[in-house]
């Protein structure tokens, strides 16, 4: 196979993969085992929890479970498109919390919860979550820090996101099936350098000059939006209620009143700061422990996901450097650990390819069994068997130190369970560790499955790996073998306690 081409005196010299590696190997007597450098210790100074599939893998549960061992819990990407569930019992009362923006350290009173510069924030939704947490009797606002650089999601962007989806549904372009939370519109405006940042309005309640400047920014943004998006008011995509919302959301006075109020509330606890300075000091000067909560999933990453059926942020481990302002070299110096979260089967919400997706009836059966309904939109999630090819691809992009395999309990009761271990493309090519770049390849793609015997027992009460039915153990071991990733924990229920720690 051809690996590299380089120019020499206008002549292209092709170097084959074989000769490239043999020439490299000549320089080393023994190949370096890079896996031996991996941290298997989950309790590192900086730990990242990342969804390895298309989101909803169970990140929230894990973050909540380990948050008490950390000082600061951070989000680096996305906004309230995320829906992270936390289930626990406090003072004898069962609590199920669906968090969208507030990090899942919410229920641990000693943690600081931080929204980094890479996040996009719909302030009213954030306040709703703060209220939800405070209604449980836990202080939230005083433990929240927001980057002054984070982009604001104005109400209008959420409306535009929805109207654009309506328009696409009519066949104008590919419908993505977004959460309609304005995420794509906000990141697009940021890249276009006309978006608004939290630091732009923070302080306007007691600074007349800043207030005037923000009003000018806001007015200019509204002018641009009216120019670009008024066509969406076409009754073909826009209901009367949406039209009413448009008028409300483009009203500058209303918006100014709201942002002035938000500024006042946030200033009570000095919530908006330079989080980049804060985090770097926390790590370097004070040796604090940082837990980073990924949103969405690796296969929804804008660059590496199944584009265009993706979200609009970087969902990869690489995203924490830009989304929080932590330099890669600092991560090299501290003990840094990346935990991949993978569901024991697979789900996806919205449009886009999923090679191992089940046919309709079995799909619904698995969705009902697993309670697969979105935390953010309530949509039924599409279900399928675990895709090892996609998981290996995800691993290559993130270099997981270990995995948590969630929802193994949901697979109880199947006669056989399947693993998608390869893709056979129409042109005869087979893929084992990377997904196709071109989505059209999915149309005729054949998945190569390995079928394993299932297990009947309810495993939700089991707490040790050796006590699992042997077929469940074999399923887990087989995933480890195929992916080369150590599975450190296994989820057997939604509660904090319903987890098996597997030491080897
Ligand atoms: P996230 O977006 O990755 O945080 O995941 P979601 O919260 O959107 O979806 C995961 C769902 O599975 C939630 O309802 C969790 O309470 C639930 N859950 C997490 N781990 C397990 C598990 O091991 N078993 C079962 N049965 N449910 C789980
Ligand atoms: P958590 O953090 C599942 C999907 C949407 C849609 C696509 C783009 O709970 O795992 P967007 O609103 O981001 O522009 O939608 O991405 N999506 C998610 N799917 N879980 C999520 O987050 C998701 N965040 C976005 O369904 O297909
Ligand atoms: Mg979710």
UniProtKB/TrEMBL annotation:
SMART domains according to UniProt: Adenylsucc_synt
Subcellular location as annotated: Cytoplasm
This protein's name: Adenylosuccinate synthetase
Subunit structure and binding partners: Homodimer.
Organism: Anaeramoeba flamelloides
EC top class named in words: ligase
Listed HAMAP family: Adenylosucc_synth (MF_00011)
Residues noted as binding IMP in the record, renumbered to the chain: 56-59, 81-84, 179, 193, 296, 311, 379
EC number(s) per entry: 6.3.4.4
Family that this chain belongs to: Belongs to the adenylosuccinate synthetase family.
Binding locations of substrate: 375-381
Cofactor binding remark: Binds 1 Mg(2+) ion per subunit.
InterPro entries the record matches: Adenylosuccin_syn_GTP-bd, Adenylosuccinate_synth_dom1, Adenylosuccinate_synth_dom2, Adenylosuccinate_synth_dom3, Adenylosuccinate_synthetase, P-loop_NTPase
Known pathway: Purine metabolism; AMP biosynthesis via de novo pathway; AMP from IMP: step 1/2
